[in-house]
Amino acid sequence: MEKRTFVTLEQVKKMAEKYPTPFHLYDEKGIRENARLLKKAFSWNKGYREYFAVKATPNPYIMQILKEEGIGADCSSYTELLLSEKVGLKGADIMFSSNVTPAEDFALASKLDAIINFDDITHIDFYEKIAEFKETMCCRYNPGGDFMIQNQIMDTPNDAKYGMTKQQLKEAFSKLRDKGVKHFGIHAFLASNTVTEEYYPKLAKILFKTAVEIKNETGVHISFINLSGGVGIAYRPDQKPNDIMLIGEGVREAFEEVLVPAGMEDVSIYTELGRFMLAPYGCLVAKAIHEKHIYKEYIGLDACATNLMRPAMYGSYHHITVLGKENALCDHKYDVTGGLCENNDKFAIDRMLPKIDIGDYLVIHDTGAHGFAMGYNYNGKLRSAEILLKENGETVQIRRAETPEDYFATLDLEQFPLKG
Predict the structure, then answer these.
(1) 185 and 80, same structural domain?
(2) 330, 353, 363, 373: which one has the fewest Cβ atoms less than 10 Å from its Cβ?
């Protein structure tokens, strides 16, 4: 199966005249179409809401596009809450799911009337010293053990730092009820980047059964169940991408099987997707600036791991297209690298690609989520610009590239005046 880019060589050449490479590029048309498809997949649930995981792509221009499509924000920090406020999101538009939460984060979440999702039972007493309890609040659940699909371990919640045990969840709900909370949400995240239609339905069934048990034992009103994220994408060309319509139908079947007979058909379904929402609709555009012939063949780009950390950090696969050579034979084996003083600064290892010449533009696919967001300044490298390809074909810079002045801005350099 072929992975296609959403941008052509001619378009990139035109962009590069205005925005020097490297830069992250986002596809507005793809983002909007995907958002509408997701909402269609869960349209059977009257209260359905998607809360975009801001950490995946923390840019207000992207958040504004999603807001226009009726999508809220899943925030995990003070700064992400501020970003959401800047975009005009507040109240039930924001889900605040954090852990090891500072007091000021809870205070701002309360001020914005966000739906607060407590990660730990001890946070309830901590929060009480900071702000008032709201009518609707949420708690995060960790069922422990291994999360398995067809005898395959997808992840190990038992080792995860997130969430409460079932007993703690019951105690937390009872405690919150006694403090005036009237409507409750249950939240859980059990596996990351799953490329299977079975994940959400299986997770949903676990949470639905837990919700029925808690309602029966505590008598609280379960208002919503948040399936969080975890629906992944096909990074590799030979992977079958998730069918969100099948996933939505699987969750509906679990809803009909578990919640409806329990008289809980008013429960709203929430999701907090980041990777699924954005990753395929962003790419890193870079230029080949060096080649090296030693024990292996290397192509050096003007981008490096500070622009895209995932391959260096996780060994993650990101497909690469050499623009203008999409139909050329992939008969050259390269390590595609950046210029960091780290040997793991490689976008690809032993990758079969067309012959790459100096000056060629390369597109590194699927960087729309957890791409720019994970950038850093090691070796004094500067973060790149972010560009939006609008539906009408025009481009707009939605974040400028960093400058050396930005790098030094947090230092007191009065004793060390910069020269050059």
Answers:
(1) yes
(2) 330
